[in-house]
Design goal:
392 residues, alpha+beta, binds zinc ion
Length: 392
């Protein structure tokens, strides 16, 4: 009986998803006349309480109202958690844990109801400390795919977009910068999820693999988590709100499932105009980020040879390097071919067919480490590479 019901539910969800899927366009949104998604927003905290809990409670419903795409029911505090039950879940499409924390007092019936909701095709969206929640319930950890470990970096850093084709990442380009409290997790979730965003470890002077947002499935249900959301500025950020809206659409099954539901169909990059906007702007999206190598050598004290090469990537023909911008080059001189510049920040447009850019940074300040912060634009987007150089 149970199997029959869950199979039926899965078939209905699949049929519904297929109705909404629109293979010709990865940016398909909710069709006109579609009923609004019903979002159950949980902001209860039993551990550390972020000031942005209140922000989430205003931003998320406002996002639903402004887009017309979802209506929000709020389970605000621990005292309200009784509302998180089978009956309420039946009336919603997506549950969102926004900056929840600690061991929320859910009884066995509530836990079973949430897992059943997910297994039978529900959607789950978690932000930031949603992974700092319910450590005492391992099934929740399996649902959200990770538990918070620590936050070694609270600062501005670069975030790389690994998959720009997901509804939650469309329009972000290859990379963006944001001031956040960046999380690490007890175990890297990568083996169990489809990673959407990663911390550009070099941008915080580190190395390693630090997924920040991902999607996965739970039975017939869809799970999305985004580790950003510590600061007020993040919740007010249009890019973050776009991610949430896309994630809610996806979690509700209103978009193609993308890589979380199978494979991401590759698409041909759209030709971009040669004029490039400001370095951090986005000039397009591609389904797969090309790999770019940064090769550094120090031929002499105070001198740095830098070679940026587009080395591979399935759509590399459309992803040739177009422009390199330098910032924070205090007291240095950059030479690239006949080009010499001494300003702290400037950009160089490359020849249309460039796969490699070679330049030399000289007269580096010998007294302290100099930071070379590159912004590179290719045919698909703009991304950042941060290089710290000690010249002493
Ligand atoms: Zn935080």
């Amino acid at each position: 009986m149970r199997w029959g019901r869950s199979l039926l539910a899965a078939a209905m969800v699949l049929a519904w998803a297929m109705i909404w899927a629109h293979p010709a366009s990865p940016t398909v949104q909710v069709a006109e006349g579609a009923p609004a998604i019903r979002l159950l927003l949980v902001t209860a905290t039993a551990g550390f309480r972020h000031g942005t809990v209140e922000t989430a409670r205003s931003v998320v419903p406002a996002l639903g109202a402004a887009s017309g795409e979802f209506v929000t029911t709020i389970v605000a505090e621990v005292a309200d958690l009784g509302q998180l039950n089978a009956e309420t879940l039946r009336q919603h499409d997506v549950v969102m844990f926004a900056n929840t924390s600690g061991n929320l007092p859910l009884d066995d019936g509530q836990k079973a109801a949430l897992l059943q909701f997910m297994a039978s095709g529900g959607g789950f969206v978690g932000t930031h400390s949603a992974t700092d929640t319910l450590y005492d319930w391992p099934e929740y950890g399996q649902l959200i795919d990770a538990y918070f470990k620590e936050h070694p970096w609270t600062r501005e850093a670069a975030v790389n977009v690994e998959d720009g084709s997901h509804p939650a990442t469309q329009g972000l380009g290859w990379s963006f910068r944001i001031t956040e409290e960046f999380y690490t997790f007890r175990e890297n979730p990568r083996p169990n999820v489809h990673v959407l965003l990663t911390l550009d470890a070099a941008s915080v002077g580190s190395s390693g693999d630090y997924p920040l947002a991902w999607c996965s499935t739970y039975g017939s249900g869809r799970v999305y988590y985004n580790a950003l959301g510590h600061f007020e500025g993040t919740w007010q950020d249009v890019g973050f709100q776009q991610q949430l809206l896309g994630a809610i659409r996806w979690a509700a099954g209103r978009t193609p499932l993308g890589a979380c539901g199978g494979t991401t169909p590759p698409s041909t990059p759209t030709p971009q105009p040669t004029a490039t906007p400001a370095p951090t702007a986005t000039i397009g999206t591609c389904p797969v980020r090309p790999r770019v190598a940064l090769d550094l050598t120090r031929p002499a004290p105070g001198t740095l040879e830098v070679v940026v090469s587009a080395t591979d990537g399935p759509s590399i023909a459309g992803n040739l390097l177009r422009r390199i911008a330098f910032t924070r080059l205090a007291n240095a001189e950059v030479t690239m071919g006949s080009f010499i510049d001494r300003r702290a920040a400037f950009a160089v447009d490359l020849s249309p067919a460039a796969r490699t850019a070679r330049f030399t940074v000289e007269r580096l300040d010998a007294a302290r480490a100099v930071h070379v912060d590159l912004t590179v634009t290719d045919g698909c987007g703009t991304w950042n590479t941060f290089v710290g150089v000690g010249t002493g």
